[in-house]
Amino acid sequence: xxxxxxxxxxxxxxxxxxxxxxxxxxxxxxxxxxxxxxxxxxxxxxxxxxxxxxxxxxxxxxxxxxxxxxxxxxxxxxxxxxxxxxxxxxxxxxxxxxxxxxxxxxxxxxxxxxxxxxxxxxxxxxxxxxxxxxxxxxxxxxxxxxxxxxxxxxxxxxxxxxxxxxxxxxxxxxxxxxxxxxxxxxxxxxxxxxxxxxxxxxxxxxxxxxxxxxxxxxxxxxxxxxx
Length: 227
Hints:
The protein contains four helices and 13 strands. The protein has helices at residues 28-36, 61-64, 124-127, 192-218, and strands spanning 14-22, 39-45, 50-56, 70-76, 79-90, 97-104, 111-120, 131-134, 138-143, 152-155, 164-166, 176-177, 184-189. Strands 1-3-2-6-5-4 form a six-stranded mixed beta barrel. A four-stranded mixed β-sheet has the order 10-7-9-12, with no helix packed on it.
């Protein structure tokens, strides 16, 4: 396995605003009524207390249906909370959002979140017939909110077949990667096409070696030099 150091171009995580209202009642009946009205029950896990609220389902579109991570400014009846998405529950049949969990964040307090991996570049291994295999589509990172990236870009341009990128190969200023260092992020695997090419090359090399040996055996011995 190669030693691969990915040069990460920093793109600061964007912030999305969601407006909502505090919940006056809790429980399944209240949650059902909130969903029926087109909103989503939510909770913020705060430092001192948990805050229950609801917000229109459409306001989650740019937060949920995206390949990038975001900070969230929650505006609840003119009270502001900064948060990150912790978990989201979908209906098993309709895929409608059932519930959203947030974690409150503070500018001076490190927090742990999952950030998506974004692959770019044309791998020489893929061009040669290999197949890109992504093992981890998100990575856990820890840092201050202002230092979080939208995504973690990994350049695969120089990766050959059988080579890959591990967590330990990635580095970013002021951000700590929390997944196991030896965990594989992605690899360039051998496809049937690449395997066939390798077999053909090996067969050609063996044929050349056999022909060279046969030619040497068939060659007449050199006549002794006249004295």
